[in-house]
Amino acid sequence: MTDTLAQGYLSLSAILFTIGTIGVLARRNVLVVLMSVELILNAANLAFVGFGRLRGGPEAAAIVLFVIVVAAIEAAVGLAIVVALFRGRGTTRLDEINLLRG
Amino acid sequence: MTLVLFYLFAAVVVAGAVGVVLASNPVTSAFSLIVSLLGVAALFGLAGNGFLAIIQVLIYVGAVVTLFLFVIMLLDLNGPDLDETGITFHRVAALLLAAIVLGSLLSVSAILGAMGPEAEPAGSTALQIAQMVFGRHAVSFELASVLLLVAVVGVVALGRKERLG
Fold first, then answer.
1. Domains held by chain B: number
2. Are B151 and A64 an interchain contact pair (Cβ–Cβ within 8 Å)?
3. SS3 labels along chain A
4. Is the CATH code 1.25.40.10 the one for domain A4-96?
């Protein structure tokens, strides 16, 4: 017997992860790339909730809570780096930020 | 009924996510992100995790996206920063890679989802989550608070006008 709803959560998680991957790889604006990273983290959370439904118990929900905390930290640090970059180089385009290119 | 609601919320999530990636203006992207994250919150609620749904709305929509909007307004982007048109090699490569990722993730989720539930499907209450976070995951909780402290110090150091050291 399969759980249609849990299966749906896992499939939606895969689709959301893919959309986030396209955003990270194809967009050149660093703010949109950071938003796409948030999409990817939400896809992971959806997968946790789907597996939590299959396995039962609040373990998955506790891990989702930690993922949300780390995502908030990632957004704060990422945006601080974006602001520092914009101050120094005057752009948010990733292909113009090539300080480390040899 | 639950399945109908699931498809409705899933459509909202996917529409918001596509909006984030396709919108040319970052402000539009941020608002699409709000739509998508609210859809995810609704899906958390649908799975019986009401507490997670509230946390998702408070932290993601209330704090993270607001932070994004603050930074977008602060930077005042224009012209060349927003220009992203044309089919380039790396975009085609990105779509190909994304197709591979989607195929592999969908097949894995089909295999794992077909194993069937090991327990009666149930959500989790705030009490259960708290017992888990402050019980078995107490060390992770302390590490998360240390991580938050480090992030705060790091953000302040990054935000300073003059260089450190």
1. 2
2. no
3. CCCHHHHHHHHHHHHHHHHHHHHHHHCCEHHHHHHHHHHHHHHHHHHHHHHHHHHCCCHHHHHHHHHHHHHHHHHHHHHHHHHHHHHHHCCCEHHHCCCCCC
4. no
Q: Is the ipTM of this complex over 0.95?
A: no
- Give the CATH number, domain containing residue B60: 1.20.120.1200
CB contacts of A35 in chain B (<8 Å) are: 20, 26, 29-30, 33, 68
**A-B Cβ pairs (cutoff 8 Å, strict):** 252
pLDDT in tens, A23-46: 999 888 899 999 999 999 999 999
In a domain, B147, yes or no: yes
pLDDT tens for each residue of B8-51: 999 999 999 999 999 888 999 999 999 999 999 999 999 888 89
The pTM assigned to this predicted structure is 0.91
